[in-house]
Amino acid sequence: xxxxIIETGxxxxxxxxxxxxxxxxAASAAVWQLGFVWIEEAIRGVALxxxxxxxxxxxxxRDKRSVMHVVKASGRxxxxxxxxxxxxxIITAVTRRALEEKTGIDVWGRVSEPIDAGFETAGxxxxxxxxxxxxxxxxxxxxxxxxxxxxxxxxxxxxxxPAATVGKEVVGENPKARSDVTEFLFxxxxxxxQRLLNELHGEEVGLTSEEQTTAKRCTVQMDQMWxxxxxNGWVAAIxxxxxxxxxxxxNLRITYPDGRTFVEKQxxxxxxLEKLTWKALRDTVLGIDRTDxxxxxxVWPNRSILPIIVGxxxxxxxxxxxIAFEFAALLVANFGHYARADELGLPFITAFDDIRxxxxxxxxxxxxxxxxxxxxxxxxxxxxxxSISLAEELTSSAKKxxxxxxxxxxxxxxxxxxxxxxxxxxxxxTIPEGRTEDDDTNPxxxxxAPGKPVFSYAGKPIIVNDExxxxxxxxxxxxxxxxxxxxxxxxxxxEQLPGQHHAADSVKTLSRRQIQGLRPAxxxxxxxxxxxxxxxxxxxxxxxxxxxxxxxxxxxxxIDPAAGKDSTMFVTALDLAVVRAGTVEGNxxxxxxxxxxxxxxx
Length: 602
Known about the structure:
There is one protein chain. The protein is an alpha+beta fold. The protein has 20 helices and 17 strands. The chain has helices spanning 11-15, 21-45, 54-59, 84-100, 122-139, 180-201, 209-218, 245-250, 252-255, 259-286, 324-341, 346-358, 384-401, 422-427, 474-483, 512-523, 528-544, 551-556, 570-581, 584-593, and strands spanning 2-9, 49-51, 66-73, 76-81, 106-111, 165-167, 176-178, 235-243, 297-298, 305-311, 314-320, 370-378, 408-413, 430-431, 455-456, 462-463, 600-601. The strands form 5 sheets. Strands 10-11-8-12-13-16 form a 6-stranded mixed beta sheet, sandwiched between helices. It has a 5-stranded mixed beta sheet with strand order 2-3-4-1-5, sandwiched between helices. Strand 2 (49-51), helix 3 and strand 3 form a beta-alpha-beta unit. Helix 2 packs antiparallel against helix 4 (84-100) and helix 16 (512-523) runs antiparallel to helix 17 (528-544).
């Protein structure tokens, strides 16, 4: 018996090589199909029988004509075969298909050394094969060499690859140059989008007719793709990824040294992860909060959510800027609920317990799965591929600060149109050690000055439905956002968005002008002394006006690096309040043809 591992590489670069969301959905589906559909078709195509049961696979060892599909994942497949020739035939079939259909997918595979009949070496052989598979990747040419661009080539209007044909997206449009990859994606785009929608609210997923109607109303449907996601002047890119998955699979062979148990655990965990993610996403789209059964459902605005990638524990989507923070918080909460209190989460809880028992010295082993989310808000015309790239970096930041033990959200409101990385953006939001007001140089990067920063107004990730010694919770951030939102009698949208908690008798202690006046005190000085001086001046003006800074705001304006208070959530909360309120033009457009519902209905 032999392991066969087939994997795709540079998935995010492939999916977001274009800003055309229709093509992004098609590229995501192509990567997903390779792990879920192409593998099975390749197995049957080389005249082998397909199975997912270990006992059946071992029983068929006599005729050596079956294959066990152990791990089904987006862009990755793990198989057991009886002969190395069968493994190579499957790899050949999959890679040949990727080439012949001109998909542009980077895919390769490897066959292991033989596994002993008793499965005693299954874990070791798998580890060796996985390491060699990654080593093999470094020796291969990238897929871009399949499409060399010469000076006389016309470039594809969508990807920059050499054009091979021309085509129209809609009737009456001028034809545009397309590469082979782009042509493949256009052909697959409709089916790819329909698959996502079927998984979200199709008849087969067990939703009632009322729930199907609700889900269809708030998600972008096929006939609405031309107009995209509804917005209030702000659009959000959401990227979510699970915490703790890598910790499990990296230690699986050590935790379960018995070969058969190792095989079964891989299959069980990979199957449960996909189902758990979809379950949490469906509930979130329906506005259901599984952490509190007594709550009414949140009603999202019409056509406010556009799923782009859903595979394994990865989710990428575009959303209405006014609801994205609440949507992300609900998604993290629902994912955590199912990871803790559902049969789909039980295999992971057991695996974490077994890892701690087997490897007691291993650090940061969580008790259950959780979700980390990166959230980027931009104006509607900002390149989505850049937004989702920043969202991925924010997801990594959320994981790092939460130590991968609990669900967290890290967010960024991007006012600029420049395309920069997260490190460059946040460097400018940090006052490094030793900076003075007379220093005209740009803030040094982490590589140049690895010392601890004195102060940052970038904020930190936000914890969802949990406690954390250093990070604020979603509930605390909501209160801060409410305090920093415009007064009830100020210029704000007539309708309230989900998560907007202005009470009729709410008395705001700070005016809009005073709230906005606090921002430059934090963001404009170039030295810590300048920050404290500016805050002292603004506070004095507020005191003279007879108003008082609310306690939760005052706490976020307290700058004390010596006591560990080296950052503030004030600017983050103020930005989220601005996004939630929306722009005047964006709200006017949205209210004309799509009134925004109130916070929740029961």
